[in-house]
Amino acid sequence: MGLRGDVQEVVTENAVAEEQFLHFHGNGQIDNNDLVERHYDRYGYLTHAKMKEKEGFSTIEYTYDDDYRLVTRTLTNETAGITYTNTYTYNDQDEPLTQQQKVFDKNKECVMTINMRNNYLTRDDEGNWTSNSLTLSYWEKGGDMQQTTVLQKRTLTYWE
Fold first, then answer.
1. Where are the beta strands (DSSP E) in 65-145?
2. Distance between CA atoms of residues 41 and 47, nearest Å
3. Are 134 and 149 in contact (CB under 8 A)?
4. What pTM was computed for the model?
5. How does pLDDT run across 66-115, given as a tens digit for each residue?
6. 45: pLDDT confidence band, cut at 50, 70 and 90?
7. Are the C-beta atoms of residues 43 and 27 closer than 8 Å to each other?
């Protein structure tokens, strides 16, 4: 997730394509009761999980590059017939630079694309960003591309 230090909690104002509130255990693993049947690789990275939905579960697969940065997150909900694929690129500081989310229907046709690019503005003493100017481009099947910029702020709490 591009976090540095013993992060306990992250609260993001104007969260886009991420959770507004994140909490981590002391060992660095995310505290999320909606994720079940978690599988980790030998280095402790989450590779597979199921997420509780209103009806049933979605399956989530995670892949990482050679530097153990998340490069793909794929969520599939068979009941809804939808697949969300998120791909990530990183800057020289190993922080998420871009994220692209594509949504596919049951026929594997892309029905929505969201492109995001981060421009980190301020950081805390650990080097984690505390404000970000996020450029967002959005396209939905049958519509025109739309673009906006969102100012995000976040507060991080660390384990002592």
1. 70-77, 82-90, 96-104, 110-123, 129-140
2. 6
3. yes
4. 0.84
5. 999 999 999 999 988 999 999 999 998 888 999 999 999 999 999 999 99
6. confident
7. no
